[in-house]
């Protein structure tokens, strides 16, 4: 009960100081407010970006490996000419992998070509991406259909003139009308629409199926040179859920070296790319941003700590005779000490809450102006209040200690 009474009195003293010396107190709290605002803004922005980027990475699949010519990450001094001379992943590689791979739930050969136009009667949509993929595309990528169906095994193997289209393309060509069963023109051919992807919007990497058309790869190879590098041929492998990514990668590497007849000791002539490469790069980047946030906000909080210590020394000076009366009535040193420490903490919490309110208002303003919402999470709120308590304790200790050591007689006479 004594502790709660102390806390209550300390809050009362803090608010009395704020009411009686508004300008002085607000100027002292300003640095704490700016410091908490800076740190929590950086952390909230980082958490929001990290969450959105991670969800974009997760769309690729945490257990998925992409066999490509170029790696996603290079060393400091990489010999680019070695990568230039590598072969593109081929249909032959894909066929052998599909026959030999044991720990895969789906294997797909894919190419894509952008900036294409699709037409239906007098309507057309420009700037779309055409992706040609083998049958297991629905197993290696995460997507949903809002209408229609996926390719059958027969349609994929025979290269039937059928396609799946994105929601934006469907709206642009057909409006509210159901496009399934209708014929459209693309790549100089007439194809039948059998399904429409569910609208999903762009992720942080700018990729989306909303403006994408998907056709069987066996249909595309009669029109395009699917081994041409400009179409970015790749083989996508999604492993079984009960098998680790490292085991899938090891099996893939062994099979690809066997297919390409690479002797022991020779370097691989292919890249096995995975989402952990992106995740590790994102973690390194966000770690540096967090450190920068701590440094920038830390200077403001340091200045704020000195300001709080200064105002507490002034408060002790102003209430010296009250301290003398309290001690003469039997108040212990720890009572005086805790009273002023709690008052310092109260002031810092007030400054921290003002900083958090500013972060929240800024997040609302950015969300209203740009549509990108920054999330002020509970962990960052707790962090902001925690920093305020720590700074209040450190800044208020020496003034509180000096108050607790005052001689009661001298204090009353002051």
From TrEMBL:
It is a multi-pass membrane protein. GO terms for cellular component: plasma membrane. Keywords: Cell membrane, Membrane, Transmembrane, Transmembrane helix. Residues 25-253 form the MacB-like periplasmic core domain. The keyword Transmembrane applies. Pfam families: FtsX, MacB_PCD. The keyword Transmembrane helix applies. GO terms for molecular function: transmembrane transporter activity. It comes from the Bacteria. Residues 295-408 form the ABC3 transporter permease C-terminal domain. It is found in: Cell membrane. The chain crosses the membrane at residues 27-46, 291-313, 334-366, 372-398. Belongs to the ABC-4 integral membrane protein family. This is FtsX-like permease family protein. It comes from Pedobacter petrophilus. The lineage of its organism: Bacteria, Pseudomonadati, Bacteroidota, Sphingobacteriia, Sphingobacteriales.
């Amino acid at each position: 009960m004594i502790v709660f009474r102390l806390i209550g009195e300390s809050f009362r003293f803090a608010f009395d100081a704020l009411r009686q010396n508004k300008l002085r107190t607000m100027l002292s709290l300003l640095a704490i407010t700016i410091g908490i605002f800076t740190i929590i803004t950086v952390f909230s922005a980082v958490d929001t970006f990290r969450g959105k980027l991670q969800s974009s990475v997760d769309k690729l699949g945490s257990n998925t490996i992409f066999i490509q010519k170029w790696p996603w990450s290079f060393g400091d001094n990489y010999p680019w000419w070695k990568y230039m001379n590598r072969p593109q992943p081929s249909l032959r590689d894909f066929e052998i992998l599909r026959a030999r791979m044991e720990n895969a739930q789906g294997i797909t050969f894919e190419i894509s070509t952008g900036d294409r136009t699709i037409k239906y009667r007098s309507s057309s949509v420009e700037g779309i991406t055409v992706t040609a993929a083998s049958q297991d595309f629905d197993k290696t990528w995460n997507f949903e259909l809002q209408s229609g169906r996926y390719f059958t095994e027969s349609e994929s193997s025979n290269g039937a003139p059928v396609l799946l289209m994105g929601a934006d393309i469907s709206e642009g060509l057909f409006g509210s009308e159901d496009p399934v069963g209708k014929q459209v023109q693309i790549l100089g051919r007439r194809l039948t629409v059998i399904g429409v992807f569910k609208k999903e919007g762009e992720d942080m990497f700018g990729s989306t199926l909303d403006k994408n058309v998907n056709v069987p790869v066996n249909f595309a190879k009669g029109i395009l040179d699917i081994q041409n590098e400009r179409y970015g041929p790749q083989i996508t492998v999604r492993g079984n859920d009960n098998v680790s990514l490292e085991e899938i990668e090891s099996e893939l590497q062994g099979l690809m070296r066997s297919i390409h007849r690479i002797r022991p000791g020779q370097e691989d002539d292919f890249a096995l790319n995975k989402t952990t490469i992106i995740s590790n790069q994102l973690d390194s980047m966000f770690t540096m941003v967090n450190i920068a946030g701590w440094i920038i906000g830390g200077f403001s909080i340091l200045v704020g700590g000195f300001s709080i210590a200064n105002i507490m020394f002034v408060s002790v000076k102003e209430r010296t005779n009250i301290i003398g009366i309290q001690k003469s009535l039997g108040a212990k040193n720890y009572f005086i000490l805790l009273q002023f420490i709690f008052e310092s903490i109260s002031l810092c919490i007030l400054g921290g809450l003002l900083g958090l309110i500013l972060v929240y208002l800024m997040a609302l303003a950015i969300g209203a102006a740009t549509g990108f919402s920054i999330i002020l999470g509970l962990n960052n709120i707790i962090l902001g209040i925690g920093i305020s308590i720590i700074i209040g304790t450190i800044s208020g200790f020496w003034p509180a200690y000096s108050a607790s050591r005052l001689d009661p007689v001298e204090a009353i006479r002051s």
